[in-house]
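Researcher: Go.
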Amino acid sequence: MRSSNAPWKCCTASDCSKFEGALATETLSRALRLEGIATSRRDSFIRGWPIEWDLIVPRPKEKPALHGLLYEPGQVAAVLEVKLSGLVNRKNALPALRQNFKLAKKAGVQVAYVAFADYGKASAVEKELGYPCFKLCDVKGRWPNSKYSDTGDFERLIAFLRDAEQAGLP
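Model: Structure:
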């Protein structure tokens, strides 16, 4: 039996990273929609690509197929890799993410890594990844005494996605 009804205590296992990742993705999706930027459902796909994308930003007025999960490559403006607190197993994660982003860029799709808060060693910086990265807040100190501050990257992300939506339109 759980000792708390707090929503973030929903997991009984010691590792709730899947839940935290889903929550981060849903939170970002909602924030983008409030800014007028459409997003896919969480964990969506592009036909012909063996990659599950955290979020897809479709081109204006494009609708996915198969229960809202599948887009055609030409329907996609951008794909986002979303993390709550950075990359786990960075040594393996960065090359895999770089390869996925390379495939998307080759097809004319914009790509970005978005982290709510990247902690030091887990940070995926643009220099290492080679693609746009957005860190939404800086974190000082260790939990539960952490202090958070806005980086201004959310506004940069909005501008990046609006440019991606308009790219290639008449």
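Model: The chain has four helices and eight strands.
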